[in-house]
Each structure stands twice: as structure tokens, then as C-alpha cells.
Specification:
single chain, signal, 4 strands, 5 helices, two-stranded antiparallel ribbon, 5% strand
Length: 203
């Protein structure tokens, strides 16, 4: 299982549709949250398993939406390679079920499960805006954090629960944007919006 998951996660990380990688180091302006009252989930409602929750992304930054991104240079550019859609869906389903495994096997309080899952859901949702060019950065991922996928499970398939030494504040410090997407500044905004609206109709 360990070997299969490593390969699947690597492929899933590589299939992001994205814009071209700049040739120099670039730092994008942080996303900004909508105006709202600050809310802390640190030990929310006296739940001890939520102790230190706000430390991961920072205070009043529930889903990591407020973040800076630094695109790093690479010796050889990453280029997306189109795969059969079912292959991609299989890999993403594995990641989905692994997220469920992590939440249900390492959190016992249903309130904490709810808060952590919603954080995960909102955080991955920001990527949709990157794909549709609604954000200030290209669609990509943090290379350093993605490289930790092999540390999620032990060789026997059980979850590895050791501290891997990073937090949500580190996400974006080593950002890579694969090249090769079909984005066209003239036609893609309309076609991507049409694709997005079609998915909403299917829900």
C-alpha cells in the first residue's frame, strides 16, 4: 500500500492544469479574507483536542486563505502530461479516502472532526480559483510539502503520527507551477466559467 500510495499521490500532484512558470523568483501578494469578525478554534468550546488549532495557519486564518507564495526556480521545468481521465479520478479518490482515514482514525471528537474536515474542504477549495485564474497566482503546489506524501503512512499501512516539522504557514514557500496548459487569455475565461457552471448544475 505504501508504494502504491506514493506513486498515486505523485501523479495526482502533477496533473494540475496551470499557467507558465516564470523564469525568475516571484512572490505573489497574499490572498485577503473577506471582512468578518475574528474567530478562534483554539480549544473551541473547551475541546482539548483543538488546543493549538490556530497555530497551524495562524490566528484568524482558518483555511489558510491568507498566504504568500514564492515560485521557485527549477533545474528542469515541470510539464503537465494529459492522462486518461479515469486514471486521474482514481488517484484523487485515493487521496480523498486517505483524508477520511486520517480524520476518523486520529480524531475521536466529532466536533473536532467537523472543524478539521471543513478546514480541509475550504483549503483545497482555494485551488479551484487558481485553476480558473481567479486568484493572483498560477495553479500549482508546494513542492516541499508535497514531497512529504511518503511519510503519511508506515510500511505496514498504518498512519504515521509523528510531527513532520512544518505548518500551514510554510505552504507556498516552495511553490511550483507546471507548464503546458491550454490557457488562452482571450478565450479561456469564458470556457472555464462555462465548465465551472456546468459542474454546479450537476451537483
Amino acid at each position: 500500500m505504501f508504494g502504491r500510495f506514493s506513486k498515486f499521490a505523485a501523479i495526482a500532484a502533477m496533473v494540475a492544469i496551470s499557467s507558465a512558470l516564470p523564469h525568475d523568483l516571484s512572490t505573489f501578494t497574499a490572498r485577503t479574507e473577506k471582512n468578518k469578525s475574528p474567530l478562534s478554534f483554539d480549544s473551541w468550546n473547551g475541546i482539548s483536542s483543538l488546543s493549538g488549532f490556530d497555530d497551524f495557519y495562524g490566528s484568524d486564518n482558518y483555511s489558510g486563505k491568507v498566504s504568500s507564495v514564492t515560485i521557485i526556480e527549477q533545474e528542469s521545468q515541470l510539464v503537465c502530461h494529459t492522462q486518461k481521465i479515469e486514471i486521474i479520478q482514481q488517484r484523487l479518490l485515493i487521496l480523498q479516502e486517505m483524508a477520511k482515514k486520517i480524520i476518523t482514525e486520529t480524531i475521536c471528537e466529532v466536533e473536532t472532526q467537523t472543524i478539521v474536515f471543513q478546514q480541509f474542504h475550504e483549503s483545497i477549495g482555494h485551488f479551484g480559483g487558481d485553476i480558473r485564474h481567479k486568484s493572483s497566482k498560477g495553479a500549482g503546489y508546494d513542492k516541499s510539502i508535497a514531497s512529504q506524501y511518503s511519510n503519511i503512512v508506515n510500511s505496514d499501512g498504518s498512519l504515521n503520527t509523528t510531527d513532520l516539522g512544518f505548518s500551514g504557514k510554510d505552504n507556498g514557500n516552495n511553490y511550483v507551477v507546471p507548464t503546458g496548459s491550454n490557457w488562452n487569455n482571450q478565450t479561456s475565461p469564458a470556457s472555464v466559467d462555462a465548465a465551472y457552471n456546468a459542474t454546479k448544475s450537476a451537483m
